[in-house]
Amino acid sequence: MAIKKLLKTGTAIAIVLAFSSLTVFAASDGKSPTHSLVSDTYKSLDLFGDVFEQVRTNYVEPVEDKKLIEYALNGMLSSLDPHSAYMNEEETKSMSVQNSGEFGGLGIEVTMENGVVKVVSPIDDTPASRAGMQSGDLIVEIDGKPVMGMTLAESVDKMRGKVGSEILLTIVRAGAKEPMKLKLLRDVIQIQSVKSHVENGNVGYIRITTFNAQTTPGLKKAFEDIKKTTGDKLVGYVLDLRNNPGGLLDEAISVSDAFLEKGEIVSTRGRNPDDTRRDNATPGDWAHGLPVVVLVNGGSASASEIVAGALQDHKRAIVLGTQSFGKGSVQTLFNVPGGGSIRLTTARYYTPSGKSIQAKGITPDIVVEPAKVVSEKESNFLEVHEKDLKGALKNPDGAADEGTDPTLLPEVKENKPADKTSAKTPDKKDGKKDDKKPDDYQLMRAIDVLQGISLYKAADQTPPPAEKNKAE
């Protein structure tokens, strides 16, 4: 049998034992599988052993057994869905550092699509965002070497490196005549996950770039700073979650709780109905009941969508912008022998109203497109959504709208002159144009909504004028 061949190596023994233990575990729940099912399982193990032996014996170059096992694990997990993966010891440590809020690299959230790396969103104030990378960009070469044929882990590893070292990325972007070359300097990515300032003297603006261990303390400080600046003039808050790729589930719950007094925030439902988890808000609203507008777009994913969905369902906030990414699955990290780990999709999450946003996303209450920089037809490829990813989980509530064909790369079209009417600064009377950058059109509309609500409340609270004495 091929299994006997596998026993020649220690690493192979571990794999065989692992598979054997899984078979025994499945048979111990009181529902013994049929003999044919057991037989099929061992036949599959024989097939794995035969392929393993052929590769290690006949491949054109020698490959370490450990590497072959890693490749097999990666193939098994990545074939399940786009978010499940095997991570070796180094990658596991890197993820732990990233979740803490500081890590080395370029500052982009990426996924693999048709053999190339696709940018989900760049992170604010990082080499990637400063170089102008956009959601939907396809990274086809790293330092002149094609990405095609690499795994996502290998591609990410090549983009990491010594702080201050240079990297050259070749980018394919819809609307560009040809691939673009971007030179970036690797840097220590220190994510200030929460930023804030005051708009128009009376609107608190809070931007959350990612959900890590520093997010809730940063949000609390943002509220305090805004209150000190505005005093009694404050009319509401804009919570900007655009291009926020997500992060820690517990932080998303904590941020939602900051705006809610009671009620469910999110529920996570796994394979076993008994494992359903429901997280509820606790008393205390850091915004003190003031109106809130949440900004989302196609780069708002996962934890961002939990927050937007919770505040929308409880009618605590108005969601404004464009359809969000649509990642409604939860990944759990399991440690495995050797210091590595597996990131496995274990549950779907649902908004308080019981809706799954998997492959659908959060639909804004007010749809506001950003100021156009390309034609509408070209802009279809500028954002990538969960439903566009190969192998993405289906939405249990029903089929999502069809996305772009994941088997095709976007056609590169000629970049035509943009219609910037909505975002262009008006020409001065002397004929000279102002050099001011285009305004953030979505943010402007969010501020308009808050100002309108403030005016409405003020008018509603104003007592009606007293009737004049008819004798006058």
Q: Which terms would index this structure?
A:
19 strands, 2-enoyl-CoA Hydratase, Chain A, domain 1, 6-stranded mixed sheet, Pdz3 Domain, alpha+beta, 472 residues
What does this structure look like?
The chain is of the alpha+beta class and 472 residues long. The chain folds into 3 domains: 2-63, no CATH class; 85-190, Pdz3 Domain, CATH 2.30.42; 194-410 and 419-426 and 434-456, 2-enoyl-CoA Hydratase, Chain A, domain 1 (Alpha-Beta Complex), CATH 3.90.226. The protein contains 11 helices and 19 strands. The chain has helices at 2-6, 10-27, 35-58, 65-78, 89-100, 127-130, 152-159, 215-230, 249-259, 303-313, 441-461; strands at 85-87, 102-105, 108-113, 116-122, 138-142, 145-146, 166-172, 180-185, 187-190, 194-199, 203-208, 236-240, 264-270, 277-280, 292-296, 318-321, 329-335, 341-350, 366-367. Strand 7 (166-172) and strand 8 form a beta hairpin. The protein is globular, with a radius of gyration of 26 Å.
The top-level CATH class of the largest domain is Alpha Beta
Helix content: 25-40%
Number of strands: 19
Which shape, going by the Cα principal axes? globular
CATH superfamily of the largest domain: 2-enoyl-CoA Hydratase, Chain A, domain 1
In short:
This protein has 472 residues and is an alpha+beta fold.
